C-alpha cells in the first residue's frame, strides 16, 4: 500500500513538472505573439498612413477621379490648422 502511494505521488510530481514546463512554454509563446502583434499593428498603421498619402498625392497630381475627396481632406487639414492657431493665440 505504501509503495502504491509512493508511485502515485511520483506520477503526480512528474505530471506536475510536465504541466509546469508546458505552461512556461505557452507563456513565452504568448509574449512572443503579443510582441509580434504590436509590430504588425504599427506596420498596419504605417501602411494606412502611406495609403492616405498616396490618395492625397493622386488627388493633387490629377490622376485621381475623385477630386472632391481631396478637397474635403484639404478643408479638414485647414480646419485643424485653424484650431491649432486659435489655441496658440489664447
What does this structure look like?
By secondary structure, the protein is mainly α. The protein has one domain. It has two helices and no strands. Helix 1 crosses helix 2 (67-89). The protein is rod-shaped, with a radius of gyration of 30 Å. The protein starts with a helix and ends with a helix. The model has no long low-confidence stretch (mean pLDDT 87).
Low-confidence stretches: none
Instruction: Count the E strands.
Output: 0
Helix content: over 70%
Q: Give the biggest beta sheet.
A: none
- Helix segment tally: 2
Rg, Cα atoms, Å: 30 Å
Mean pLDDT value: 87
Domain tally: 1
Shape descriptor reads rod-shaped
- Order of SSEs: HH
Strand content: under 5%
Distance between the termini: 86 Å
Gist?
With 90 residues, this protein is mainly α. Helix content is 92%, strand content 0%.
Helix-strand blueprint:
Layout: H1 2-61, H2 67-89
Name some characteristics of this structure.
90 residues, mainly alpha, 2 helices
Amino acid at each position: 500500500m505504501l509503495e502504491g502511494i509512493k508511485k502515485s505521488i511520483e506520477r503526480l510530481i512528474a505530471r506536475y513538472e510536465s504541466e509546469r514546463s508546458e505552461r512556461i512554454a505557452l507563456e513565452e509563446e504568448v509574449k512572443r505573439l503579443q510582441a509580434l502583434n504590436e509590430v504588425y499593428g504599427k506596420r498596419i498603421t504605417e501602411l494606412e498612413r502611406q495609403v492616405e498619402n498616396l490618395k492625397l498625392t493622386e488627388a493633387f497630381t490629377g490622376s485621381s477621379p475623385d477630386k472632391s475627396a481631396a478637397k474635403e481632406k484639404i478643408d479638414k487639414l485647414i480646419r485643424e490648422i485653424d484650431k491649432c492657431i486659435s489655441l496658440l493665440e489664447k
